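Deliverable D4.2, example record:
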Amino acid sequence: MAINCGIVGLPNVGKSTLFNALTATAAAQAANFPFCTIEPNVGRVAVPDERLNKIAEVAKSASTIPAQLEFVDIAGLVKGASKGEGLGNQFLANIRETDAIIHVLRCFKNDDITHVEGSVDPIRDAETIETELMLADLQSLEKQIDNMSRKAKSGDKETKAQLEVMERVKAALDDGKPARTVSIDQDEKKYFKLLQLLSSKPVLYVCNVSEHDAATGNEWTRQVETMAEEQGAEVVMISAAIESEIARIEDQKDKEEFLRSLGLLESGLDKIIKASYKLLNLQTYFTAGPKEARAWTIKIGSTAPEAAGVIHTDFQKGFIRAETISNDDYISCKGEAGAKESGKMRSEGKDYIVQDGDVILFRFNV
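Output generated by the structure prediction step:
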């Protein structure tokens, strides 16, 4: 499944530098002036997963294909974006197409890099972006409510139910609360999704710090952590400058040694990917054979047929069963044959909920 995260923030907070480092490309121009990124740049990164390498080794696979996350570098938003300031309408439309928002906050001081507000204040910056998203949502909702109110006069129950959700969300926005804070029942989710609200998207706050604060953080990052805790949001602390250095190191062992020298256990990329998976309620299952070992991304709670459909819709339509082995059993039993002999291979039906790390062979008939 294609999952993408939009990298947003005020100008000059390090979005494009981070994007370049994450995707190890120079696709996004990093420069010390607002709007250096006009068109959204898109890059895909492999999701690091040591389990895939072990599975491939056991299966003697000719190649490995990791899961991927897509990052979209969206140009810097400014105050007034909801009214079109700073190409705001275009940038807000780019955000609307993403699954989640990675909100980069500047938590470093550097007199050589200007800040559009004249000072470093990540909480203020976060509120600026959030306010613009909510204002844009309010404008959109007001138009939709006006149209839906006229239709609701016909007495149609579904239209009334849709209107009720709209009005509840609008009340929250009027109260200064993003759409994602509104409690939505299971049967209302389809109406909520149709609204395509910017502030309904899950948010991951990324604190961009200087190199010497990468391991310990600073007063600004602690402020962001407090804010995120109040919102029930996730925070990742990275140094875009360090990530740029890591992107230039080809040997994995050299990368690990470089990180250790800075007191870091893992790269910012790994931290962001793990947090993004958690944010989007995602997990991984595997397929393996002589040709390839591959990781597949699915939503937590997906059934076996739904997981099969990620490979091909025919797999889901003609699903018969899923021959399933846990990742640990696959490795300890040295593969499919050993797991089958040990009674560790299970034949699961349509109601089976796929678990993170499952190694699966789908049986289907089209």
